[in-house]
Specification:
The chain is an alpha+beta fold. Helices cover 64% and strands 17% of the residues.
């Protein structure tokens, strides 16, 4: 078994949760999302992020607005919807439960 593949799958599984969490703090531009995810070592590329953002938009969990830019094309800024906040709240509860369960298993001698 390849440990790198397992690590990638673990990160991918958490990516949607992390992206929603970042967007829930306020309107965000895609490059800011990538910067924060990279800084947190949740390595992600645009080819992964854009399809995820489109899925979140299609599910009515996030929305976006176009903002004119003085130095180039308009920018798309994402924000979370009320439905997205409810969804994120449920994911947060699930995450808490998973962390507790994982710790109970991995810290047992």
């Amino acid at each position: 078994m390849n440990v790198a593949n397992t690590q990638i799958q673990m990160r991918k599984g958490l990516l949607e949760f992390c992206v929603l969490h970042i967007i829930s703090r306020g309107e965000v531009y895609t490059s800011d999302l990538i910067d924060e995810l990279t800084l947190a070592q949740m390595i992600v590329v645009e080819g992964t992020l854009y399809p995820l953002l489109n899925r979140l938009k299609s599910a009515s969990l996030v929305e976006y607005r176009w903002v004119e830019s003085e130095s180039g094309p308009p920018r798309k800024y994402y924000s979370i919807t009320e439905e997205g906040k409810d969804f994120l709240s449920t994911l947060s509860e699930t995450w808490s439960s998973l962390v507790n369960s994982t710790l109970a298993i991995t810290t047992k001698n």
